[in-house]
Amino acid sequence: MDNLVHFTPKKAQTAAGNLDKFINHCRGNLAAFGRHWETNTWKTVNDDRTVSVTFSKLSQPKGETALMMDTLFLDFAKAYIKYVYSVKPIKTMANQILALRVLEAAFVVA
């Protein structure tokens, strides 16, 4: 398992600065789901079970034809999934990715 460093925001930094550091930390230091940051479907194995995450929009079908999350939200979503899975590897990320899809949809509408 990774040498996990719990992310603690610094009060003196801006929210955007904290977010950038969090994303860069997860992207560069966490090995969960491999080092395939640029791909939009990630897979790994946990206890002989494949764990898969696709960063598609809420109302989109799965697979190659799905529209991916908005680029302004996508890096955060990927960092969050890497971080959560690194803290506690689980057999499905369905609830986590659903929550991110709903959040992304709300931000795009707002």
Write a concise keyword list for the protein shown above.
3 helices; 2 strands; alpha+beta; two-stranded antiparallel sheet; 110 residues
Tell me what the structure shows:
By secondary structure, the chain is α+β, with helices and mostly antiparallel strands. Helices cover 44% and strands 11% of the residues. The chain has 3 helices and 2 strands. It has a two-stranded antiparallel ribbon with strand order 1-2. A hairpin with a 2-residue loop joins strand 1 and strand 2. Helix 1 packs across helix 2 (71-87). The protein is globular.
SSE layout and pairings?
Layout: H1 15-29, E1 41-46, E2 49-54, H2 71-87, H3 94-109
Antiparallel strand pairs: 1-2
Helix pairs in contact: 1-2
Mean pLDDT: 87
Amino-to-carboxy terminus distance: 38 Å
Question: Roughly what fraction of the amino acids lie in strands?
Answer: 5-15%
The side-by-side strand order for the widest beta sheet comes to 1-2
Label the overall shape.
globular
Bin the helical content: 40-55%
Q: Helix/strand-derived class?
A: alpha+beta
Listing every helix as H and every strand as E from the N terminus to the C terminus, the arrangement reads HEEHH
Helix count from the secondary structure assignment: 3
Using the CA coordinates, give the radius of gyration.
14 Å
- Counting DSSP E segments of at least 2 residues, the number of strands comes to 2
What oligomeric state do the depicted chains represent? single chain
The main pleated sheet reads as: 2 strands, antiparallel
Which blocks of ≥5 consecutive residues have pLDDT under 50?
Answer: none
